[in-house]
Amino acid sequence: MNSEYYSSLISKCITTRHLKLGHLLHSHFIKTALTFSTFLANRLIEFYSKCDSIQSAYKAFHDIPIKNTHSWNIIISAYARFGLFDEAHHLLDQMPEPNLVGYTSLISGLGHHGFCKESLNVFKSMLKQCSNLIFNGFTLVSLVGSCARLCAPELLRQVHGAAVIMGLNSNIIIDNALLDAYGKCSEANVSFSIFSRMPERDVVSWTSMVAAYAQASRLEDAYRLFSQMQEKNTVSWTALIAGFAQNGRGNEALHLFQQMMEEEIPPSPFTFTCVLSACANLALIARGKQIHGYIIRSTSRNYFCNLFILNALIDMYCKCGQMRSATMLFEGMHEKDIVSWNSLITGFAQNGHGEESLVVFERMIETGIKPNHVTFLGLLSACCHTGLVSEGLRILDLMEKDYGLRPRSDHYAIMIDLLGRNNRLEEAMCLIKRVSKGSNHVGMWGALLGACRIHGNMDLARKSAEVLLELEPGNAGRYVMLYNIYAAAGRWDEARQVRRLMMEKDLRKEAACSWIEVRNTRYQFFATKRFHCRIKEVYETVHNMVDHLYDSGYLPCHSSFLPEED
Predict the structure, then answer these.
(1) Rounded Cα–Cα distance for residues 310 and 335 (Å)
(2) Beta-carbon contacts of residue 506 (< 8 Å; ≥ 6 apart)
(3) What's the pLDDT tens digit per position in 131-164?
């Protein structure tokens, strides 16, 4: 029997992933001395690596008496694919004559596993140690992918420039990779320059360009290009939906999703996470439940076991105030990650259930999940909403001492808000002074100014406002809050001075807006507008609520308001 026959048997083992039969063939080769055939030994290494048996692959490699370049390349590629980069790097260093294939395998493996900086460092090392090597299209695609994940446009230009200088021939795969990479680096104009010069374009080219415009918040350009596409797939639709959802245009994202469903394009897990995020941000609970129902009906595609979808559902229910549904989903999850726990902790905190939030945190610690910065933002919010000052201070201290996480400005801003709400304004002021760069953080001073308004502390209010007006001279809301503080204290001269400053700077407070979802339709109400098809019923309901407030003993405060615009 010749080598071609045995090679075909190994190919069948690879196709069927029949590890037991492969072991039998390997035993036969050892008994008949066929392992001395470098060709067959290389095929065994390939078989074991594709069957995820890396130790057997290395043994087959180690036993080859005469290793050729292909032997080294296969084993390096196997280790890189498994994420065993120290071993792969060591083998590359041992290789008698390192070549482009070995380097590319390591570069690609590092990039694929998220070690993008290390991937680029290996490339730089290759250029220094093997100056005669000229990288090819496979190397370039791996490198630009790493640049894109790092969002490093300057590095991307350098790699692209090196490819041009070396005379690397362009093709549709390379052009698509470059187009996508520049898009992810928010360089939509460069992406379009590549796109417009492409002699041949496929659905990947068009989708990458749509995604590039969406990434750069050029949604009209993205939609225009999408409309011109002859062929659209799930990725194309999802790229456009994600662009609208991530740029605060959730209604349009949901409308596109509806069109996608009507055209019978199957959504992906990422599509679902995008539209659920849109529902969460708009508090469209009925629409979110409809999408949830579709996911349940699609269990044949195993969507309901997808961790990303479940996390998005929990987040949606939390943001819509449906904590019971969020908890039921959470408890039914077979696998929970830090995002799952953080969503529930933050959800309880934002919905006024601070104690439950702290209980969930204790459960998370017991399961061995290590908290991150987001976890502590949720916990401090829980303390803030329930007035647990001592617990908040303990958590802030616990964060660095027990978990090695240095509190960020956002954590301190919540803590200052907590102290301020409880009229511990001097402690809040001391915390701002103690925090590095705290004097330049808008959130901290904003929280202190809000607390001064509640408790009528004029001195601290003036100091907070002065800092904020210097940090945010164009924020009308800060002027309005200072005006209201002066008005509440009856200091009308200072209030009029603030009003005059606003007029001189031509600053206008954005009209307050609220909305409600009724039968899948979202109704918006602006404070300055009095027009609505059912405005009479709205005012009757408001008057009834006011009557209930009076009956409960609440009295209106007329001293704190900003006059209407002239």
Answers:
(1) 10
(2) none
(3) 677 778 888 899 999 999 999 999 899 888 888 8
Amino acid at 553: G
C-alpha–C-alpha distance, residues 100 and 94, integer Å: 15
Instruction: Tell me if 81 sits within 8 A of 107, measured CB to CB.
Output: no
Separation of alpha carbons 324 and 77, rounded Å: 48
Query: Is the CB of residue 143 less than 8 Å from the CB of residue 159?
Result: yes
461 vs 562, more confident: 461
How far, in Å, CA of 172 to CA of 484, rounded?
62
Q: How many CB atoms lie within 10 A of CB 218?
A: 18
Q: Closest by alpha carbon to 392, among 420, 372, 367? A: 420
The CA distances from residue 333 to 292, 317, 319, 352, 386, in Å, are: 15, 15, 19, 24, 28
- What distance in Å separates the CA atoms of residue 160 and residue 185, rounded to the nearest whole number? 14
Count of alpha carbons within 13 angstroms of residue 291, beta-carbon side: 31
pLDDT bin (cut points 50, 70, 90) of residue 259 is very high
Residues 6+ apart with CB under 8 A from 543: none
Provide the 10 A C-beta neighbour count for residue 287.
25
Question: In this structure, are residues 147 and 181 in contact, taking their beta carbons and an 8 Å threshold?
Answer: yes
- How many angstroms separate the CA atoms of 537 and 361, rounded? 44
- Residue 408, judged by CB atoms within 10 A of its CB (0-12, 13-18, 19+), counts as middle
> How many Å from the N-terminal Cα to the C-terminal Cα in the chain?
98
Pairing of strands 513-518, 521-526: antiparallel
By residue count, the chain amounts to 566
- 399-427 pLDDT, tens digit per residue, is 989 999 999 989 999 999 999 989 998 89
Task: Let me know how many helices (H) and strands (E) the chain has, helices first.
Answer: 31, 2
pTM over cut 0.70: yes
Q: Give CA separation, 325 vs 11, 321, 339, 360, in Å.
A: 50, 9, 17, 16
